[in-house]
Each structure stands twice: as C-alpha cells, then as structure tokens.
Amino acid sequence: MTLRHQIIALAIIPLVISILAVTTFITWQSANLAKNSIDTFEQNMLKTKEAEILNLTNLALSAIQTIYDRAGPDDEAAKQQVADILTSLDYGKDGYFFVYDYDGNNIVHPRQSFRHGHNWIDLTDPDGDKVIAELIATAKAGGGLHQYKWQKPSTGQIADKLSFVVSLDKWHWVVGTGVYLDDVYSQSAAANKVMRANIRRTFVIVALIAVPSVLIVFTTCMLLTFRERRMADSRLKELMQRVIDTQEEERTRLARELHDGISQTLLGVRYAMDLAGRKVRTNVDDAAQTIERGVEALNGAIKEIRLLSHDLRPRVLDDLGLTAALEALCHHFADRTGIETKIDASGFAGTLKAEASTALYRVAQEAFNNVERHSGASKLSVKLWSDGGRARLTISDNGTGFDGARDGASGGAGLGLRNMQERMAHFRGLLLINSSEAGTTLTAMMPRSANLAAGKQAEAA
Questions:
Q1: What is the pLDDT of residue 154?
Q2: Range of 54's domain?
C-alpha cells in the first residue's frame, strides 16, 4: 500500500469501528430498556389477572358459603344447588367456574358440557401438563394458581390460561376459575413490535447523525493530512533546492578561490621559475633571488590551500575536538578580518557526539560569515559551555543587527540562518537569535541526546 492509501485506511478503519461500536451499544441499550419495560408491563398485567381471578373466586365462595356450611357430606340436594349457582356465575364469553371432584370427575363446566360426568384425571395439555391432576393437587395443598393450556371458548383455539382453585373438603370438590393470557401476550407482542420499530428508528436517527458527522470529521482530517503532506513535500523540495544552491555556491566559491588565488599564485611561480631558468642559462647573477621569490609565492599558494582545506573540514576538529577547532576558527577570523574576537570555553564538558560537534562548528562558521559580511561589527565574543549536561554556544557581536523576519525571508543572511536552524533541528536542538541596533546574540542549544553514551564518554576521556 502506498503512504496515501495507508493514511486513508488508518483514518477509515477506526471511524468505521467507532460507528459500529456506538450503534451497537445504543441498539443494545435501547433493546434492553424496552425489554425490561415490556417485562415489567407483562408482570403487572399478570398480577392484575391474578388479583382478578382471586376476587372472582372469593365472590363465588361467598355465594355458596351459606348452603355449603349447612349441608352435610352427602347432601345431594345442597350439592346440586351449589352446582347450579356456580354454573350461573357467568362473566363474559370466556369467564366461567368449573368444579371437579378429587377423582377427576367433572361436575360443573358451563362452556364444555361434554365434559360433565366424565373423568378427566389423565387429561394433558399440548405441553404435557396433566391439567386436572395438577389442579386437584393445588387445591388439596390449600389452593393456589396454576398455568396451563386450554381451549378458549370464544375462538376455539388453544391458549394459555391461569386458574385459581380452592377445595371444598367436605364434598371432596375442587372449585376454580381462570383467565386466558393470550390478550396479555398479544399486548406484549404489540409492545415488542413497537420496540423493534423504535429501535430501527433510533438506529436510523443515530446513523443520520453519526455518519455525516464522522464523514465531516474524516474529510476534515483527510484534508488536513493531505495539506500537511503537500506542505511537507513543498518544504522538502525547497530544502533540496537550498542544498543544491548551497552546493553550487560552495563550488563557485572554491572555483573563484582556486582561479583568482591559487591559480594566479602558481602561474606567478611558473613565470618565476622560467625566469630563473633563463638567468641560470645566461649566467645572470640574480637567479637565486628570482628562485627565492618563486619559493615565497609557492609558500603563499600552500597557505591558501591550507585555508581552503580548513574551511572545508578542519583537521583540528577531528584531532583535538570542538574547543580547539573553535579557538582556531576565532584566531583565523581575527587575523583575516581584523575584528577583535574572544572565546571562552572553560565551562565546556566536551561530551558531544562527533556529528553534534560538527553541527555547532558549522553554526559558528556560518555566524562568523554573517558577521563579516553584514554586521559591520568591531568586536565578537564566543562562549562555549555545558549547562546540566547540555551543550550551549553563544556568539555575540556589536554590529548593526538585522530584521530576522525580513532577512530570513530571502537571500543572503536568510539562507545562512535557515541552514543553522536546520542543523540544530536535526539534533532536536534550538537556535535563538536576539538582534537589535546594539548588536546580535546567537545561542545554539543542544539536548542531552546529542551527548556521547556514558561508556564512550569514558573512552573519549
């Protein structure tokens, strides 16, 4: 994958995961809340049904209580009278009372007359529940609720039914009534349907809000990323052009120095040697003086070559270190320009890496060039020291100063300042410049990471 595709992938994948996670969480939370609400509603409905059938049972018992209390265990007339009363207690299409004896024989069933006089002890519902046996057992145990499946009179369909039964022990009867729960479950199903519709609506709303928002954030991030990339590419191209321009400037300077200085000097030496040769052949007495002048000119050429070599890469920096190299640079600068130059390196620990020492030396070299060309200074001071293990270099002059924003924008000193800043930035260092009409102070600060490792420091020492 290209860098652009990698950036797009790294931007899209977390956003997609975030959208899915947020949507899933909201959907799950909404479903849980709705399910809890529906469960609570269903439980409340069931409790209402339980209270309803309990009240109906108490009402029926109140209606037969007087007759039951006065009758004996085998009072058939009283039994028939009670059965008639219970048969008549009708409430709605699906509301009725039923009676079974302890053996499972049906005594009262207003909605299913075919059950009268038959034994149903072994009757089971579609779930395998032995309905009549369970109702009898519940009544014998003191009465209570029992849920099972039974045919609903109004529809003829099998539905869930909740019954409450009590026993008439004297007659060995089980009296009960019940309510069908399909209306409760239908309301729960309707609520579930509404819940699913609400969840879908919530999901759509979240999607309509989240997706455009995420797309806006993603688009903004991508635009910023590509803008930064274009800026970085532009800065890289600018830097490459600066490197090329600097190389060309250095080559031009070397060519000019070689042509105008060393080449002319060597040409003079050649003419001197030719003249000396002619004088020797003609036995002229001053041939030795001519040779001496040629030797002097050759010595001058050698000195210029050494100066060029020193400017390119001073041997003293590799052999004796940064302090000695800066001292030599200051002495040569003072000799060449006549500017009074002082250096104080007494507080320098000398623990920098070779590359960092070279960077500080080049910063000083560039600063000296700027002082010579632009400042008009008469005094220059250099201080090299260590502060908390961090190398510091300060160069101050009493020149006219400069406008950093203006001079840093183009040409001349601006290119030199940018070169110094980039050398320091390579080591994550800082370059601070304070310039005014009273002079300019340049401070280069290296971080601890530019120092040699502890073991190498010991070896260098």
A1: 87
A2: 3-186
